[in-house]
Amino acid sequence: TQFSKEQEIGIVQINxxxxxxxxxxxxxxxxxSNIDTLSKEVSKLSSRLLQITAxxxxxxxxxxxxxxxx
Length: 70
Known about the structure:
97% helix, mainly alpha, 1 helix
């Protein structure tokens, strides 16, 4: 009947939409995971850069102190 065909078309459309939503959700989850990994790496690099900068400041002060002694 016409009614059952319309129901079938509606169900197919709903299933297709749910499938697209599921696919988008999985892509978003993957992207979020990648962003999390990248942010952790950036945090590590930032910490390392701060350590290097602090060491350079110490080395510069040490060199000034040596120049005074020499």
